[in-house]
Amino acid sequence: MPLFWLIGIVALMAAAGYVLGRGRAVSGVDGDRRRLHSLPSYYGMNVTLKVAVPALTLMIVWLIAQPIFVEMRVTGMIDGAAISDSRNADLVMSDVRRLAFGLDRAIDQGVLTSSEAAQLQVDPGAIRSTLGQAGVALGSEVTEQVLRAAQQYRLLATRGAWAMSVAVLLLAGGGFLLAMRQTDAEFRARNVVERAVHLILISAACIAILTTLGIVLSLVFNTVEFFRIYPASEFFLSTTWRPSFGGGSQLGILPLIWGTLYISLIALIVAVPIGLFAAIYLAEYASKEVRGIAKPALEILAGIPTIVYGLFALLTVGPLLMRIFGDGGLGWMQASTAVMTAGLVMGIMLIPFVSSLSDDVINAVPQSMRDGSYGLGATQSETIRQVILPAALPGIVGAVLLAASRAIGETMIVVLGAGAAARISGNPFESMTTVTAKIVSQLTGDADFGSPEALVAFALGMTLFVLTLGLNVFALYIVRTYREQYE
Amino acid sequence: MYDTQYSEKAVGSAQDIKIATKDVNVRYGANHAIKDVSVDIQDKTVTAFIGPSGCGKSTFLRCLNRMNDTIDVCRVTGEIRIDGEDIYDKRVDPVQLRAKVGMVFQKPNPFPKSIYDNVAYGPKIHGLSRNKADLDDIVERALRRGAIWDEVKDRLDAPGTGLSGGQQQRLCIARAVATEPEVLLMDEPCSALDPIATGQVEELIDELRREYSVVIVTHSMQQAARVSQKTAFFHLGDMVEFDDTDEIFTNPKDKRTESYITGRIG
Q1: Domain extent for A444
Q2: Percent of chain B, pLDDT > 70?
Q3: Which terminal residue of chain A has fewer beta carbons within 10 Å of its beta carbon, N or C?
Q4: CATH number assigned to the domain comprising residue A319
């Protein structure tokens, strides 16, 4: 049974359960809803929840677990012989999956019947041409073992799907019956629904946290894998980044870190003063009307996709800098992609971050501080410099650090604006590249996922992650530690 | 300085008039907060403004050092002269004025700086000290006048926000006197303090009277009776009655004053 129908049936049962449960509760007290413990809709919702939640949960768990289970069973069928000749188990398994998928397609299109597919004999040319008719091209010859494995794979998958449908529907029906039997005037449906809402919210939070954990773990495992085939000391200490897909790459992270930090530094040099001064103007000097217009306008900057900033860097800022610092002008700049180009544009991108967060922080400084300072005969700028900024400083530092971690993780502007050369140089008009840009180029190539050239992306990602996580934690620590100072 | 031409209006005393106000009106947008108030405040005297909440006493107080300038919609008309000089004259710099007319607020508001820096703030921005030693003297003198020197002399580097409420308020008073003002405005300086701290601050106010003209806004009639020599009663934006404190509390002329001090309105 297709998944869509299964979900549809459960949804229908849940909807019907609402109406029936509500009706049963009301008719149980002869239509006098005052005698019910809860409002009638709670009884309906109780039935809906008991039908849908366990059934759909089971379905999701099953959908995740079944392929793992099938895979394990099928992998057991393939012995060492097929794996030995320089092909690892993963590749054989992907052949099996592809063949099984091809057979499914062939049956769907009527090229084969399902019994034919189950009985298919090893006749390599025939299988390839049959599947070719169905539009599935097989890469290598089909061996006896792979065919058997594929057929087993299909069998298990089909059985599993049926078993799942039955189990899900049974569970939904069981939930329905249970909930309907519970429904009477004494039943505390309202409390049950309240608890269910609680659980649903908790599970949403858990999913978010577990996903993060999963991402981190996958990073960690792949990084460990990388360091098994490439020495960590080389990775962290070498100043050469020269990947070559034929092997013998030199994968030193230092030039990439240097590029990342250099570009981020220029971005912050642009963003922090402009953003901070804009925030001070908005918070302290601007009239209500100006603020009402200027603040949203600044925040629009934050809504521009970074690829658009990248285009801006490539097509406007780069050529502009070229005209001033290039061969026609001062002669410092060779190409329009450079650290300066990316840094300037990234700085513009960060302005709303710094200004918006700083503005909030400055506004949070109590009015009594300003009154106290004005009352002593201080001018507005003296008050800002000597009272408001020191009081707001922790928050401002936090804002700057958050902006820095944004800058370090930024990709598109760098890809388009900074060039691709990994080098350590002090000249901001040379092109350099960053960790993020190199992750993109390592993974968009054709490298085998087991090779150090591809796995290095995870090590780079991990380094970046540790760097930005550290910055964020530090920022939060500073903000928290000094926050209550004027309370 | 035209002191003499106002002194004849002084209320029952030959003492100098420090602040003379005439027909002061304050409007917040459409709200007429102060209506034709005229009060003369004497030098080296504590003058109390009393009245129910929202009667305009704080607003009027804030006119005396032009703190209302920081509120956009606030408009002040009328005449306020300190030592005969119209403080709303265009040539008067409100920043200079506020150095001369110090202010202490309802809630203690020490800056998030050290105790020393809190007190040194005013002298520093106005350039009152010749050198560091001189500044140290100014800070010590101010803290002594604020009656808090003995409590903080060993921890001048500690943050001012770490003191207790009563100490914070005395620190704020010390901070205000450090700029050598001539007038001290106090906007309900004890309303956030416990009775013991209130007692200490009241004692301090009585001390300060020797050198400054003090104007205090208070909700507490007992406090007005304890610390002030002159009392003005405000009601709904009008200044109803202004006289010697004893006179106000024992022999009020106006019905509304009598109702208020006997607790029937307010």
Answers
A1: 241-482
A2: 94
A3: C
A4: 1.10.3720.10
